[in-house]
Specification:
- The protein is an alpha+beta fold.
- Helix content is about 45%, strand content about 20%.
- It has two domains: about 5-165, Ribosomal Protein S5, domain 2 (2-Layer Sandwich); about 180-305, Alpha-Beta Plaits.
- The strands form two sheets. Strands 1, 2, 3, 4 and 5 form a five-stranded antiparallel sheet that branches. It has a four-stranded antiparallel sheet with strand order 7-8-6-9.
- Strand 7 and strand 8 form a beta hairpin.
- The longest helix has 24 residues, at about 205-230.
- It is globular and about 55 Å long.
- It starts with 5 loop residues before the first strand and ends with a strand.
- The relative contact order is 0.16.
- The mean pLDDT is about 95.
- Keywords: ATP-binding, Cytoplasm, Kinase, Lipid biosynthesis, Lipid metabolism, Magnesium, Nucleotide-binding, Transferase.
- One of its GO terms (cellular component) is cytosol.
- It comes from Epilithonimonas hungarica.
- This is Mevalonate kinase.
């Protein structure tokens, strides 16, 4: 393919916790995608994208990358002059990896060393994640490299800890009553300020303690139960995770979602959690009975991403 597509990603579990060494489970989401293309730049979207790429190429020119991961920045700059832009329908500020897909597309096209995601070893994944972190930090000030890695690999990835990541298989989808779904908060969120709030909170010893002893425990238990398709312990821990986030991630929860979040906890009809850094964009929902949850969440735009 001349123009490979790079899909969005969804952090099912591990938002913020991964910064403090929790596990994470991240999956590609093919509803949104982006690809590098050439054009005459005769509309605003293409023009803006081309200008953004030019600024980014200056950042890349200054970046010191390991020799195995070096990019052909001269070729990238030449292509920008020829009208290169990133044609994407991935919404920005929605927690689904708009900058991750862009970084993955640039890396795939301009990396001197070509790789096949299917055959990448666990050690190489670790190195790739580190390099992607450097490449994406231009957009957020700091980056784990996780988003571009998922977009590049186009496979579900289990983050075991800060050091180790591996490919993983999700349980087979079934047409059951249960579902994982997205709720559109209707507003965009900015990753930088949200991460700033989180780091401020981390200065508080009580918050650090509850994050490590409760949030990370519930988060890891959810991942383990979900991958085993063990739904009773999954929903038990999912509720604890949702309660914890409702109490401790208040600034990250969009205001118009507060009541719906509480309604889910009070009724046990569904549980909500952040999708990415929060502040806006999507919120993730988990339910044993999607029909019931859908009625209770009337007025919100929803998209089912997984059935069980």
């Amino acid at each position: 393919m001349n123009n490979p597509l790079f899909y969005a990603k969804i952090i099912l579990f591990g938002e913020y916790g991964m910064i403090e060494n929790s596990q994470g489970l991240v999956v590609p989401y093919s509803f949104y995608k982006g690809t590098l293309k050439f054009s005459d730049l005769d509309n605003d979207f293409e023009k803006k994208s081309n200008q953004s790429l030019e600024k980014y190429s200056n950042y890349l020119a200054e970046l010191e990358l390991p020799s195995d991961f070096k990019l052909n920045v001269d070729s990238f700059k030449n292509d920008i002059k020829k009208g290169l832009f990133f044609d994407s329908n991935i919404p920005q500020g929605y927690g689904v990896g708009s900058s991750g897909a862009l970084v993955a597309a640039i890396f795939e096209k301009y990396s001197f060393t070509k790789r096949d995601p299917e055959t990448i070893s666990k050690d190489e994944l670790k190195d790739l994640k580190k390099v992607f972190g450097q490449l994406e930090s231009y957009f957020h000030g700091t980056s784990s490299g996780m988003d571009p890695l998922i977009c590049y690999m186009n496979l579900p990835i289990l983050i075991e800890n800060k050091e180790n990541v591996g490919k993983v298989s999700l349980p087979k989808e079934e047409v059951g009553k249960g579902a994982i779904f997205l709720i559109d908060s209707g507003i965009t969120g900015e990753t930088g300020p949200m991460i700033q709030i989180f780091f401020e909170k981390l200065k508080n010893e009580g918050f650090r303690k509850t994050l490590k002893e409760e949030f990370i425990r519930y988060n890891n238990a959810c991942i383990e139960a979900f991958l085993k398709k063990d739904m009773n312990p999954f929903f038990r821990n999912m509720k604890k995770l949702s309660v914890w986030a409702y109490e401790h991630f208040r600034p990250m929860i969009p205001e118009n979602i507060f009541n719906a979040w509480k309604k889910g906890l009070d009724s046990n009809a569904y549980y909500l959690k952040l999708c990415g850094s929060g502040g806006g964009g999507y919120i993730l929902g988990f339910t044993k009975d999607y029909e019931k949850a859908e009625k209770m969440l009337d007025g919100f735009q929803k998209e089912v991403i997984y059935r069980f």
